[in-house]
């Protein structure tokens, strides 16, 4: 008897209250997150910027930022309570089983005729239909909330740049693209599991690593252009300064683009893409417009730090290790009859459903893992800040970060627990302190 066989039998306990356990996890998580939000809300009531930044942060702007934070917090109570109720109803009334039965069509039997490697068995088409119906369902649930958030809240605070037309086009494109991608992922997942039986763990794992790399590589060329427009940077001064910075750390910069992020939102950012030997930098047009060239170079210096110190690779390796662990544990649940029947699957045991149920059982462990990921990511942020400082951009980075926070109306004052649980970046004040910026703030007033 193999290890997975052993685990399958060991965990298959008919008397175990599978459903109550998942309900308890869902309720605890909701209560815990509401508690944290409540702690954080107290900080939003304080409308004065923290004393250290009193001289650099505009008090009026900060007051408005706190109004924005409170509005979002109130809305968060509503939207998270609603999705909590939906989750509870889905678990309590066997929502997965109902959707599974509702997406069982007879044409799927007719489609599964041949035995070639490329033929799709009913197990695959049915799972894809189920997943697609699930994403349509969650889009229908989410859309009223994102409509309100985009056209009422973001609009009121001047961030919304999207039109109704773009909004709906994004939803349709997202559903279509998500349907295609999800179907590919599910088909690979199921084919590999069916083909390799109990040894599927390593094969599924490797397939997903390869698929992830392919998607990451083609996304900037195939997927992102569906949503945004990319234009090469033409400003010769900006271009040569960025090239100079990239060359100074031997970054293989090939393409430099500006993305029309302002079409949708006023929030700013920048990112890299491409192969290890040929990279592209994408700047949000909002970043170019709102920051001075030095501040923009400082932000890029920080991003280059992540690249230089292999942070992206390190975080990716950690993710690979975690997903291996996740899959290996799942292998011990794949034939767990008592888990399936607790959620309304008595005859059929679809693998995809088993995976979804297992993921909800794994939830508390996922929360711990994401906390660990946050810790790792925070330490990477400090290192990238220090890197930018070594490049000579310490003060510019600090000022750029302050401006970014001001423009995005981000709060500066955080509850320790709230921040530790939710954020993968350290709070601004802690970053400024680490950069050593606070010491010079007095000069700024002159
Ligand atoms: Zn960073």
From TrEMBL:
The reactions it catalyses are:
Hydrolyzes the peptide bond -P2-(S-farnesyl or geranylgeranyl)C-P1'-P2'-P3'-COOH where P1' and P2' are amino acids with aliphatic side chains and P3' is any C-terminal residue
Q: What's its EC?
A: 3.4.24.84
**Active site at which residues?**
303, 385
**One Pfam family this sequence matches:** Peptidase_M48
Localization in the cell? Endoplasmic reticulum membrane
GO molecular function: any one? metalloendopeptidase activity
Q: Which residues does the record give as Zn(2+) binding sites?
A: 302, 306, 381
Listed GO biological process terms: CAAX-box protein processing
Q: Which residues form the Peptidase M48 domain?
A: 234-435
One GO cellular component term noted in the UniProt record for this chain: endoplasmic reticulum membrane
- Biological role stated in the UniProt entry: Proteolytically removes the C-terminal three residues of farnesylated proteins.
What is this protein's name? Answer: CAAX prenyl protease
Q: Which organism is it from?
A: Schizosaccharomyces japonicus (strain yFS275 / FY16936) (Fission yeast)
Q: What is the lineage of its organism?
A: Eukaryota, Fungi, Dikarya, Ascomycota, Taphrinomycotina
